[in-house]
Design goal:
Elements lengths: L2 E4 L6 H11 L29 E2 L15 E7 L8 E3 L2 E8 L4 E8 L5 E9 L18 E2 L3 E8 L2 E8 L4 E9 L11 E3 L2 E6 L6 E6 L5 E6 L10 E5 L2 E8 L2 E5 L6 E6 L10 E2 L3 E6 L5 E6 L6 E5 L9 E3 L2 E6 L3 E6 L5 E6 L9 E3 L2 E5 L4 E6 L7 E6 L9 E3 L2 E10 L2 E9 L4
Parallel strand pairs: 2-28
Antiparallel strand pairs: 1-7, 3-34, 4-5, 5-6, 6-7, 8-9, 9-10, 10-11, 12-13, 13-14, 14-15, 16-17, 17-18, 18-19, 20-21, 21-22, 22-23, 24-25, 25-26, 26-27, 28-29, 29-30, 30-31, 32-33, 33-34
Length: about 425
């Protein structure tokens, strides 16, 4: 069942300029369509470079509250842990309304926060079991400038859907049946003509490349029958673009346009959540079940592990900057390692449990715990340098999106037994 709710939607000049840039962008040598997103856009999970790094030349606020430096805030129906994405003048995110059993895409105006439209993609068939922290809208969307893409676990299967920018559903494709364990949290990504989607689970796990215009499956690879929660990440590493995927006790590299398996090694744990990052030669994977691990693996197909340790970087993804890795352990420890050797440079206890991934802006790291407190500290190997601490509402599982001098937070207020999600846009008072 699907229903579209609109509110006078019009494409603005900013968005049309973005689309014009896309239309005129030439093909690369590999046949990959490239995209000229504005530097103020955040088109998919972990941002334009897929590594949690925001544009360095921006000035998001360092101080905020529910009243200070708030550009706007709006209530969000339902529940979800997916981060907002931003393209042109619009904000997109997923939600699941457990009472009515709707799974929907929301679109808001970037300047005012006003809801422009809501498209309900699925109704009924929601399985509310699994990890109590999980939701039925954990994924972050992706956008190619012309379409937005959503992935949902619905009625025992994973579906990918495409909508145009007015909220009209263009296609919907079943990826695979799905046996629920803890939840579904993999986010889709765009690469050239494809939308790449993963769905590891105890049944018929799969990773697939879909034609993003039609939803047709172009390639599909089966996966081990094990639960896993990582998202497909494309990195330029060891001289070429590779689709890196960890979990199910494996680290695997695919050619992203064809799905050809380039190399695969044993080396991860069974269940992983974090998204892989790279320094250009090594890739860094981590997991938390049945053991904790962080590994630095050569991405040239040699199978060599450069170093490994037993840190529990299970849910929040890692950052890399200038030869160093920065992470927040799930249990609330900020830590820095030398990326080529694994040498620990420093670690610092910070309060709380962390599910959201840290975001890097220039030399500043923003890390948000599950109770809505964000710690800001410097990305330097010299030692932990505290730059600030701010709290927003009562609960935060979604990774904040930082672009255009603004921070977009998906949080929840817990008052008198009622949970209400909110979307905040924070910026310096002008």
């Amino acid at each position: 069942m699907r229903r579209l709710i609109t509110a006078g939607v019009m494409a603005t000049a900013g968005l049309m300029a973005c689309l014009s840039g896309l239309a005129n962008e030439p093909q690369s040598k590999a046949g990959q369509e490239t995209f000229q997103f504005a530097k103020d856009d955040w088109p998919w999970w972990r941002g334009p470079h897929r590594n949690g790094e925001a544009a360095a030349d921006q000035s998001p606020p360092l101080i905020w509250s529910d009243t200070k430096n708030v550009v706007w805030k709006v209530e969000i129906p339902g529940k979800g842990h997916g981060s907002p994405i931003l393209v042109g003048d619009r904000v997109f995110l997923l939600t699941a309304e457990h009472d009515s059993e709707y799974q929907s895409v929301l679109c808001h105006d970037r300047k005012s926060g006003k809801q422009l439209w809501k498209t309900e993609l699925h109704q009924g068939g929601l399985n509310l079991k699994g990890n109590t922290k999980s939701t039925l809208a954990n994924s972050t969307m992706a956008c190619d400038g012309e379409r937005v893409f959503a992935t949902f676990l619905h009625d025992g299967a994973i579906y990918a859907s495409a909508l145009d920018l007015e909220g009209k559903q263009l296609w919907q494709t079943k990826i695979t049946d799905y046996i629920l364990h803890q939840g579904f949290g993999s986010s889709p990504t765009v690469y050239g003509p494809l939308l790449i989607v993963s769905a590891d689970n105890k049944g018929s796990g799969a990773i697939a490349g879909l034609d993003r215009k039609t939803g047709e499956i172009v390639w599909k690879q089966g996966r081990p029958k094990l639960p896993n929660y990582t998202s497909p990440i494309i990195l330029h590493v060891a001289g070429k673009d590779q689709l890196i995927f960890s979990g199910c006790n494996l680290v695997t590299s695919f050619e992203p346009l064809t799905g050809e398996k380039l190399w695969e090694i044993k080396g991860s744990t069974e269940e992983c959540v974090t998204s892989t990052v790279t320094d250009g030669q090594l890739i860094y994977t981590s997991g938390g079940y049945p053991r904790n691990h962080l590994s630095a693996i050569r991405a040239d197909g040699s199978g060599e592990t450069a170093w490994e340790n037993g840190s529990r970087v299970y849910v929040p993804s890692i950052l890399h900057k200038d030869g160093y890795l920065y992470a927040v352990l799930d249990a609330g420890v900020a830590i820095c390692w030398k990326s080529d050797t694994g040498e620990e440079k420093w670690k610092q206890r910070i309060e709380g449990t962390f599910s959201a991934s840290p975001v890097l802006v220039g030399d500043k790291i923003f890390a948000t715990n599950e109770t809505g407190t964000t710690y800001i500290f410097k990305a330097t190997p010299e030692g932990f340098e505290d730059l600030g601490e701010n709290k927003l509402e009562d609960e935060a599982f979604a990774t904040p999106t930082i672009c255009g001098d603004r921070i977009y937070f998906r949080v929840a207020s817990l008052k008198q037994g009622h949970r209400q999600e909110l979307l905040y846009c924070l910026g310096e008072d002008k």
